[in-house]
# Entry
Amino acid sequence: MAPRMTIQTQLILQALLREPGREFYGLELSEETGLQPGTAYPILLRLENEGWVSSRWERIDPHQEKRPARRYYRLTVSGATEGSGAVATARRPKRAALRRLAGEGGHA
Amino acid sequence: MTSDHRRLLAALAVALAAVSTSLTISLPLVFNDLRTSTRAYQVFTTKHSNDTLILKTIAASALVVIAIVALTVAVRTRWAQSADVTRKRAGMSSRRAAGRGGGSAPLGDPVVGVMCLAVQVAVWLMPLDAGRRWKAEVASFLAECDPEQQRAASWSWVCSAPWLIVVMWGAELARRARGVGNRGPVSQPPRER
# Structure
């Protein structure tokens, strides 16, 4: 079952879909989408449970890097195809609604 | 005064506040139960007029405030100690945090310190693996975000915790019902956390 396409979910998916092969970490995604981490994290968990996103811990020596390890998220192949489809269908009603609103405004 | 002394004093203040508050609340109730048959209640009521009770209530409230302040100090001290350990492990200097938020440690802000205590409580309430992973995510995020973002970010993490606890336990119970064991090592946060 596809995850619920809330606006926040769409924002996360759009950020990931911009560069499907790239890995993003939490802070990066938060900055890209403008979402608070507490909002983004449950969405990422949900997408991961659906198999749309895979994640891994960064393998670094915190000594050398002088920071804790990050958790990286990237779209899976199915996530890229299904996610782009889901975002596209989720957008359609909004655009139609906007057109309708614009039409009503023009007639009035 | 070392941090251990401060923590001990904080613990004593909390204990004192707890005892005095409970006595203030429980004594009148106890004597109220005995009021018809014992002379003790008469002694108590004559000795403790309304004015005295008000004073005692004010004193107890002051003690509670002191306890809260002491608790905050203790939390900050503990957090600073653990942050120092983390920084030492990560090879950072003691007063400088990692990444772009280099000017101040995430725990320098007392509000962030209290939030981190709430995060710790939430981690205890989550399934073990999921809690460890979530805590590591929070620590990683707070270590790298700007100091001015830390308060809002930590508040956001804390606010999402109750729902996450429900979701994580739901997933855990479903996994156990399916007979699937613990997740693999991929989901495990790094050991140093």
